[in-house]
Design goal:
- By secondary structure, this protein is mainly alpha-helical.
- It has one domain: MetI-like fold.
- It is built from twelve helices and no strands.
- Helix 5 packs antiparallel against helix 10, helix 5 runs parallel beside helix 12 and helix 7 packs across helix 8.
């Protein structure tokens, strides 16, 4: 009996040396499912990404096909001129609005992701250097921050456009330069706090080099804040891109973008509301989806907001 009892107790005790697998993934999934906003945001972004990737196969018409005879056709449910050939109607020169919105999703996501990635790379690098080394490095980065923040975005965009012309690469550069200070300030503050921790002193005492301390011990602890910030900044960049395109400071006029569609449809807002409404809804839904996902990531990575 004693042997059986010992065997039973030994088999019933959990193995403390081997934690349960996929626990972090399970918690992450539970937090996702329990957050309706996150589910809605992910679904919105998933649809937009699928449309952007497969738009040549999904778009019903060529976005550049002009047909003056079919100009300002209303959506299909508006009688008597509405037609299922143009589900969301046509613009002032007869181009299909739905197709242009779908192609505009590709352009907007491309500009947003690349510009945010470049701004994040530059801003995080400068924030790590300024926060870790301090002294003249911190002073130099701080002065660059002040110069950048003192220069208005619109004026900077006008200068780039006047010198280099309106193009996709130039717009990406403008948006990347406009947003890197946000990452630098956040990462710098994180580094100033992290580098004073005892484990940083411990790894420094065993002979770890500066680049090892920065990239192996400091950066991983600052990444959650950067990920949340980058997600929220994507929404800001999408709005900035639409605003610059609306003003004619974005990409080439031949490339369909949501901002340029708003600019083209503003003259017909009273007579052809669909030319202005549907591009605006596309911007609104995309920004809403990005913000919902960003709020969810903030709740996941912030220990003060965790419920699990």
């Amino acid at each position: 009996m004693e042997g059986n009892t010992e065997t039973l107790s030994a088999t019933s005790e959990p193995n403390l040396l081997s934690p349960p697998k996929f626990r972090a993934g399970n918690i992450f999934f539970k937090r996702f499912i329990s957050n309706p906003g996150a589910v809605v945001g992910v679904l919105i972004l998933l649809v937009i990404v699928i449309v952007a990737v497969f738009v040549p196969f999904l778009a019903p018409h060529n976005p550049d096909d002009v047909d003056p005879i079919k100009r300002l056709r209303p959506p299909f449910w508006v009688t008597p001129k509405g037609s299922t050939d143009y589900l969301l109607g046509t613009d002032a020169v007869g181009r299909d609005i739905l197709s242009r919105i779908m192609y505009g999703a590709r352009v907007s996501l491309l500009i947003g992701v690349i510009s945010v990635s470049l701004a994040c790379l530059l801003g995080v690098t400068l924030g790590l250097l300024a926060g870790y080394y301090g002294k003249w490095v911190d002073n130099l980065v701080s002065r660059l921050l002040e110069i950048q923040l003192a220069y208005p975005l619109i004026l900077f965009a006008i200068s780039i456009t006047a010198v280099l012309g309106a193009s996709l690469p130039n717009l990406i550069i403008v948006l990347a330069i406009a947003n890197w200070p946000v990452y630098t300030r956040v990462v710098r503050g994180q580094v100033l706090s992290i580098k004073e921790q005892q484990y940083i002193e411990a790894v420094r005492s065993i002979g770890c080099r500066d680049y090892q301390i920065i990239f192996k011990h400091i950066l991983p602890n600052a990444l959650p804040s950067v990920m949340v910030l980058a997600t929220l900044q994507l929404a800001t960049v999408l709005i900035l891109e639409a605003g610059l395109s609306f003003l004619g400071l974005g990409v080439e006029p031949t490339i369909p973008t949501w901002g340029s569609m708003l600019n083209e449809g503003r003259n017909y807002i009273l007579t052809a509301w669909w030319a202005e409404t549907f591009p605006g809804l596309a911007i609104t839904l995309t920004v809403l989806g990005v913000n919902l996902v960003g709020d969810w990531l903030r709740d996941v990575f912030d220990p003060r907001l965790r419920n699990i």
